[in-house]
Design a protein that fits this description.
- The structure holds two protein chains of two kinds.
- Chain A is mainly β.
- Chain A has four helices and 14 strands.
- Chain A has one domain: outer membrane lipoprotein receptor (LolB), chain A (Clam).
- Chain A has helices at 6-19, 33-44, 140-146, 149-154; strands at 21-22, 50-61, 67-78, 84-92, 100-105, 113-118, 123-127, 155-167, 170-181, 191-197, 203-209, 215-227, 230-240, 245-255.
- In chain A, strands 1, 2, 3, 4, 5, 6, 7, 8, 9, 10, 11, 12, 13 and 14 form a 14-stranded antiparallel β-sheet that branches.
- In chain A, a hairpin with a 4-residue loop joins β6 (113-118) and β7 (123-127).
- Chain A is globular, with a radius of gyration of 18 Å.
- The relative contact order of chain A is 0.21.
- Chain B has helices spanning 2-10, 12-29, 48-60, 79-93, 132-143, 172-186, 198-232, 235-258, 270-294, 299-326, 334-364, 376-393, 395-411, 422-426, 431-442, 464-479, 488-499, 513-525, 552-569, 581-615, 618-642, 653-677, 682-709, 717-748, 762-793, and strands at 66-71, 98-102, 108-112, 116-121, 159-166, 192-196, 447-454, 484-486, 540-547, 575-579.
- In chain B, the strands form three sheets. In chain B, strands 2-5-1-6 form a four-stranded antiparallel β-sheet, with helices on both faces.
- In chain B, α23 (682-709) packs across α25 (762-793).
- The longest helix of chain B has 35 residues, at 198-232.
- Classes of the chains: A mainly beta, B alpha+beta.
- Chains A and B meet through α1 and β7 of A and α3, β2, β4 and α18 of B.
- β7 (123-127) of chain A pairs parallel with β4 (116-121) of chain B, so a sheet runs across the interface.
């Protein structure tokens, strides 16, 4: 059973923070659907090396009519050689404040290891992920939803038209791609549609269709921003159309720390002594 | 009235044309007729138990799961069986309308060691293990999990269940049909597959109803044709009354479709019942017409004479029958109300068509050439006369034995059992019931208890004190026969234990609210599904329990005890309430007895009133009710002593029996009184009555008993019980009319036999006059039949 795990959302947090960035002034030309998809993937690689701090909020609207919200701060670091570190610090709600999720991927091609620190017990545990897809850091969900280099590996894209989308009050010309899962590719959905900003290669909207041909998930950029001179998606809504639930993700801030985040911060042994004030995660 | 019949006879083609047009109109509606087998729709939506269930469905999704049980006597822990499960599950997930599918491979299992914690599917990659080592590890994980063992996988390892949750707007029966088709493909030895759950039960019920209806309709048509053939020995004698009942069925089904009334577990037999009881009017009218033509009258006069003499009898017997069915309107169960109303409507249609269509058709057909001769009537009359002489000689014995019988069967009433479960209605041999037995045998049961705990505040369920109360509630449920319970408290306890290196000492609710929140955060962020255990904001959730199939009385007891416990232990702002099907069943059970008394009371009152008005005497009305009372008591007594439960079908037997059975008493008393008033002494009057009316009653009762007996071939046990009981009541009420009524009349010689009771003026006198005229017509018909028989016998 495919579960929409919250850990996937956490994976999404970091990836979105870094990946939903488009290069302004990109050239379009006469590109095929697959070439456009490859450009989206390339832009996903814009994740700059070095350290990054992201502040964001999840607002969940459940199918049962109830709601919940979480605020997080995320530290991430990517170094040469493919090592990736990320740490999620829970800010709100108060009863989970201080909870930490740590993901460490030593080198490219390896699975990330995950740790959880519970402040109520002052204890951390390594989380053994059953499969990489559902794990915290290596979420394919995020790649599938926001676009990554893996998209090209998993989907064939056909340019089926161009539309003008209004995002945050502004009109954006967008390529419309029809995606079809490649045979034997490990894609979550057999097909979908994607709207790609013609100027920034930023994915503005997506639709995922399930095996029965029904629309199951949508994702839409609600607010755009700018980071280091590039366009960013600052608010996104992901909807599970069949279930009737949705999550709105709002990025409050993206910033570079004054200096590189030390490797010790991403050491599982140091989770119990992590000080969020050092990085300005809390006052 | 004569002018009305003249109009019909003089314009037969217009009459037939109009009836044909109306019939075509109703036929056009029939395709819109739909079935409804969902028992929750059998109760008014305003019922608190239904409202609670619907509210729970809105919040938590479907309250009843579809379950596929896989049984393997050698154990399910082998690659072949688990691969089957894996493949089936993938196919289930692709069905539109499926919300969530959980099976033994992907059920969430939490494991913990000193340094690690794992929340993930029971089987690696949610795939069947392929090596012995992997299988052993999988088995160990599953059996060590409190939330999987005995819930998803049987503790003996010989069965597993795939639990399927449907979306609330799913087309349940359609989904169940697809599930059943997939399961059938994989149901190969040594694995045995069973489907259970309300959606599948509804599918089986709908399919069985359709199959039953086709067979029963064919049989009832066969019986009707045979009865008509032996009554008339002519084509027209078969075709005309048959046409009337077939059109009555078409009109009634069209009416149901027009008013969007579904076919239910009860009303699906409406066509069969209507054909069995609606045929009588046609027989009486046609019989009379043959008598009139035998006198040598011209066709037109013969028809008009027939209608003049027969209309009263046809109207009165139809009214009493309708009265019996309409008494079901006081029932608590919607299907019974619908069945009562539309069968009554059908009886009305049969009456109208007998009075309109038959004369129209007769007027365009040739006059029959010869007199119908029925040899068997002489034999029957002699047998009835002999029987009546014995009764007369031993009438005091009859008057003593009847109350004794009454008392003996009445004494059995405490043994009567009420059963609201659809499983009992289906019968033990039904595949759905066998599937439930498998669930009961290998797992903790198939019946579900759902309790909603609502704190009314966000994260309210994370309160340690409340979770400890939930643990206590689960222990209470388990002390009351609920075999397995699952709640948020179980998840929290399990996570706490696993986080503490799987130390069993930590299988407790942590006292720190923050720790509970953090453990739950861990669980959900690792993909753990909390399902119905909580709403998204943790303000409310459900505690679910499973128990082995129990009778209605046990369910009521469980619901009462649980609700008392909830009232005592969950106070203040926290609300705890039973929701779900068990509570609805329990409510149904508790109200059925009341519903039965109300329906019976309404039936007796309606019929008694009609008889009193007809006879112009309260005493006559009461005497007419005596054989009915005896019939009703014997019916319940037989049910009590034979262990036949009162269910949604058998509940209706008495009310219907009163409506139909009273005709015998009316016919008998009317004729007897007429003979006495005609100057005969009681012995002579009795002989005359038995030779005329007695024969009609016998034919009528036998035809109806035979018609209802067709239900014995139904695939539903509840309907077979209904058919047997109502056939029995037809015979008993006729026998009572032959024994108890003459014994009373001859012994006590009540005044109404010789005096006209109505002395009132105005409207009542008018009513009395009309009714007396109708009574006279009934008697005259019988008298005429007697004369004919005498002639035939010579």
């Amino acid at each position: 059973m495919k579960r929409r795990t919250a850990s996937r959302f956490i994976g999404l947090v970091l990836l979105l923070g870094a990946l939903l960035i488009g290069t302004v002034g990109a050239l379009a030309g006469d590109l095929s659907g697959n070439e456009i998809l490859a450009r989206v993937d390339q832009q996903a690689q814009f994740l700059s090396e070095g350290s990054m701090i992201v502040f964001l909020q999840f607002d969940n609207q459940y199918a049962d009519g109830t709601t919940s919200g979480n605020r997080f701060a995320g530290l991430s670091k990517q170094v040469e050689g493919g090592a990736e570190y990320s740490l999620i610090y829970f800010v709100e709600p108060e009863d989970v404040s201080g909870t930490l999720f740590l993901s460490v991927k030593v080198s490219e091609g390896e699975d990330a290891r995950l740790w959880l620190y519970l402040p109520a017990l002052g204890m951390s545990k390594e989380l053994v992920a059953e499969e990489q897809e559902q794990s915290f850091a290596g979420s394919t969900f995020s790649y599938q939803e926001v676009g990554s280099r893996e998209m090209v590996d998993k989907y064939d894209a056909e340019l089926i038209g161009e539309e003008t989308l209004t995002v945050d009050g502004e009109e954006h010309a967008a390529y419309v791609l029809a995606l079809t899962a490649k045979p034997d590719a490990d894609a979550d959905y057999p097909g979908g549609k994607m709207w790609v900003d013609e100027n920034t290669w930023l994915m503005l909207k997506s639709e995922d269709y399930n095996e029965t041909g029904n629309l199951e998930k949508t994702m839409e950029v609600l607010k755009l921003g700018e980071f280091e001179g590039n366009a960013t998606a600052d608010q996104i809504i992901a909807k599970d159309v069949l279930e009737g639930s949705s999550t709105t993700i709002t990025f409050w801030e993206r910033r570079r720390p004054d200096e590189e985040i030390s490797d010790d911060t991403f050491d599982a042994e140091n989770l119990d002594s992590f000080d969020p004030t050092v990085y300005g995660l809390i006052d | 009235m004569r002018k009305f019949f003249e109009l019909i006879v003089d314009h037969p083609h217009i009459t037939i044309g109009v009836i044909l047009l109306i019939t075509l109109g109703f036929i056009a509606f029939i395709p819109r007729l739909h079935t409804d087998t969902d028992f929750t729709n059998y109760i008014d939506k305003t019922d608190p138990t239904v409202m609670a269930m619907e509210r729970a469905e809105d919040r938590y999704g479907a309250q009843e799961l579809l379950m596929v049980a896989v049984e393997n006597e050698n154990g399910i822990f082998n690659t072949a069986t688990l691969e089957k499960i894996e493949r089936m599950q993938k196919r289930f997930e692709a069905i539109l309308g499926i919300d969530e599918v959980t099976g033994p491979l992907d059920a969430q299992v939490i494991t913990g060691t000193e340094k690690t914690l794992q929340v993930g599917p029971a089987a690696s990659g949610e795939e069947a293990p392929e090596t012995p080592e992997a299988m052993a590890a999988y088995r160990e994980r599953v059996m060590a999990s409190n939330t999987v063992r005995n819930y998803i996988v049987a503790s003996d390892g010989k069965a597993a269940v795939i639990s399927i949750k449907l979306k609330t707007d799913a087309k349940e029966v359609e989904v169940a049909k697809q599930i059943a088709a997939i399961v059938e493909e994989y149901d190969t030895s040594p694995d045995h597959m069973y489907v259970t759950g309300l959606p599948y039960m509804n599918l089986v019920l709908a399919e069985s109803m359709g199959k039953d209806l086709r067979i029963l309709l064919l049989l009832v048509i066969l019986v009707v044709v045979l009865v008509l053939y032996f009554s008339f020995r002519s084509l027209r004698g078969v075709v005309l009354p048959l046409l009337v009942v077939i059109l009555s069925v078409v009109w009634t089904l069209g009416l149901m479709a027009l008013f969007n009334v579904p076919m239910t577990l009860i009303s699906f037999i409406l066509p069969v019942i209507l054909m069995a009881i609606g045929i009588a009017d046609g027989i009486h009218v046609l019989n009379r017409y043959h008598e009139e033509t035998a006198k040598g009258l011209l066709k037109r006069e013969a028809i008009l004479n027939t209608m003049k003499e027969m209309r009263g009898a046809v109207v009165m017997t139809s009214l009493t029958t309708m009265g019996g069915f309409l008494s079901l309107l006081s029932s608590y169960l919607i299907p019974q109300r619908q069945f009562g109303l539309f069968t009554a409507a059908g009886v009305l249609v049969a009456m109208i068509l007998s009075l309109v269509l038959i004369p129209a058709l007769l007027s365009i057909l040739k006059v029959p050439k010869k007199k119908i001769y029925r040899k068997d009537e002489g034999i029957l009359t002699r047998a009835l006369s002999g029987f009546e002489r014995v009764i007369l000689r031993h009438r005091r014995i009859v008057l003593i034995v009847s109350p004794v019988l009454f008392a003996v069967f009445l004494a059995g009433f405490p043994l009567l059992c009420v059963e609201t479960s659809q499983l009992v209605f289906l019968g033990e041999e039904n595949p759905v019931v066998r599937a439930v037995d498998v669930m009961d045998r290998h797992f903790s049961g198939s019946e579900q208890v759902m309790i909603e705990i609502d704190t009314g505040t966000r994260d309210g369920l994370k309160d340690p004190a409340l979770l400890n109360k939930v643990v206590a509630l689960q222990e209470f449920l388990e002390s009351r026969g609920v075999k397995k319970t699952i709640s948020l408290a179980d998840i929290v306890r399990e996570l706490n234990q696993k986080f503490h290196a799987d130390d069993p000492a930590y299988y407790v609710i942590p006292q720190d609210r923050k720790l509970i929140s953090q453990l739950l955060l861990l669980f959900t962020f690792q993909g753990g599904s909390l399902g119905n255990m909580t709403l998204g904001d943790f303000s409310a959730g459900e505690v679910m329990g499973l128990y082995v199939r129990a009778g209605g009385a046990e369910q009521v007891k469980l619901v009462q005890e649980v609700q008392e416990y909830l009232n005592d232990h969950f106070t203040g702002s926290v609300k705890a309430e039973m929701v779900g099907p068990t509570r609805v069943h329990s409510s149904l059970f508790a109200r059925i007895a009341k519903s039965q008394i109300t329906s019976l009371g309404a039936s007796i009152l309606a019929v008694g009133l009609i008889v009193t008005l007809l006879m112009g005497s309260i005493v006559a009305g009461l005497i007419s009710l005596i054989p009915l009372a005896l019939t009703v008591v014997i019916n319940f007594g037989v049910m009590a002593y034979s262990g036949t439960s009162l269910n949604i079908a058998t509940l209706m037997v008495s009310s219907i029996a009163i409506g139909i059975g009273v005709d015998y008493a009316i016919h008998f008393i009317s004729r007897f009184r007429q003979e006495v008033r005609g100057g005969k002494d009681v012995d002579q009057a009795l002989q005359a009555t038995i030779q005329t009316t007695g024969r009609g009653i016998t034919y009528n009762a036998l035809a109806l008993a035979l018609g209802f007996a067709i239900l014995l071939v139904s695939s539903f046990k509840g309907m077979r019980d209904f058919g047997l009981l109502i056939s029995m009541t037809m015979v008993i009420s006729a026998l009572s009319a032959f024994t108890v009524i003459p014994a009373i009349l001859v012994t006590f010689k009540p005044k109404f036999l010789t005096k006209t009771a109505w002395r009132k003026r105005g409207v009542m006198r008018k009513v009395a006059r009309i009714l007396t005229a109708q009574e006279s017509s009934i008697s005259n018909t019988d008298s005429q039949e007697a004369d004919n028989e005498t002639k035939n016998g010579q």
